[in-house]
Amino acid sequence: MGFTIEDMLLVSRQRYEMQMAAGNEGWSNSISWLLMLEDVTIIHNFSGKELAVTTGLGFPTEEALLELVRLLIQQNASGLIINTGYYIKEIPDSVIRYCDQNGFPLLTVPWDVYLADMIKDLSIRVFLQSSTDEQISEALIRAIEHPEEKEHYIQDLLPHFDTDGTFQLILISAEDLDKMDTVERRRIAYRMQLYLTNLTHNGHFFYYDGCFVVIINAAGEKQVHEIIDAFHQRLSQKMPGVSIWIGVSSQVIDIVSLKTAYLRAGAALSMAKDHNITLQYFDQMGIYQLLYSVPDRELLWNLCRKSLQPLLAYDKEHHSNYVETLEMYLQTSGSIQAMAAKMYIHRNTIIYRMNNIKQLLDCDLEKAEDRLLYMIACMIRYMKI
């Protein structure tokens, strides 16, 4: 997940006497670059994940400092370092509270720290970690595409992952993501990475084949659910106008199973899009696990069409809803009373319709295998094939 606030603190606590003054929830924020600023002019050009550094020269009042923090959060910056002791003696309580409320890391270094050396040092570390991240991404893609060729990717991954441990893969898609240019896509990626709280070196984020990919390694299922649910909540709050879908795989063991996780996350993502659900776990898909894992979609559509054709034709000609009636019949295990209650129709009307449906299908729906076949056919209708 790149060079994070946590990484920076490990390096800088002693070397630069750096302290975290507020925004502890943002400890896992990754950093794209460090920028010195004494006014807000360039903030509007931020792409995301920038770490701002200031002496406070351009922010002499509490209101000005609070506005700086507000703008940085708005532009998805990773955090802010304040060089305290001269222009800013103490950080106002209002600024600390605001950073805490928004999980925005606010850090301090004393005035006698030479900022140029600190920025140069940390920028080099960010750059080196970025190069390492690219190497990891390439190795993970090879693991997905060619799991059997373990010798071609395992050495690049061993220093960073428990390759014999558990893996869970998340696919994230946004509307027109594959049509975006690199700059726009990177901007969204930076924002999303900031919303993946509590995920640092046991996870990795990259773009692959039209989706953002998150891989979580050696984490319990409860922890993974907490990370994903918090991410989902933040996306809803911070990006309300953007259509986003998330598919989560089941947990697999060993790096050679990463392709399996990728395919299952893809199945969950497809279901999320088809059913207009923002977040879908593969483990919660029921029989749709099988349907969305079938690569031959034409086979599924032919099964649906062949099974339901008499009813589809009748509904089209008579503007009726026999297919929906059949589906309700199957969902309620053939209970006329339950169907009447759910469809707000008199039970005699239900009986009449079901008699017609059975005649059209030439099936009395008594056998379990017949009911299963028609239930699957009804479910396929909700898949965008």
How would you describe this structure to a colleague?
- With 385 residues, the chain is an alpha/beta fold.
- The chain folds into three domains: 5-123, Udp-n-acetylmuramoylalanyl-d-glutamate--2,6- Diaminopimelate Ligase, Chain: A, domain 1 (3-Layer(aba) Sandwich), CATH 3.40.1390.20; 161-291, Reverse transcriptase/Diguanylate cyclase domain (Alpha-Beta Plaits), CATH 3.30.70; 297-380, PucR C-terminal helix-turn-helix domain (Arc Repressor Mutant, subunit A, Orthogonal Bundle).
- It has 14 helices and eleven strands.
- The chain has helices at 5-15, 62-74, 93-102, 115-145, 154-157, 182-195, 221-238, 258-274, 288-291, 297-318, 322-331, 336-343, 347-361, 368-380; strands at residues 19-22, 33-36, 50-54, 79-84, 106-110, 166-174, 203-208, 211-217, 244-248, 252-253, 279-281.
- Strands 6, 7, 8, 9, 10 and 11 form a six-stranded mixed sheet that branches.
- Helix 11 (322-331) packs across helix 14.
- It is elongated, with a radius of gyration of 27 Å.
- The model has no long low-confidence stretch (mean pLDDT 92).
List keywords for this structure.
49% helix, five-stranded mixed β-sheet, Arc Repressor Mutant, subunit A, alpha/beta, 11 strands, 385 residues, six-stranded mixed β-sheet, Alpha-Beta Plaits, 3 domains
Task: Write a brief structural summary.
The chain is built from 14 helices and eleven strands. With 385 residues, the protein is α/β, with parallel strands linked by helices. The protein is elongated, with a radius of gyration of 27 Å.
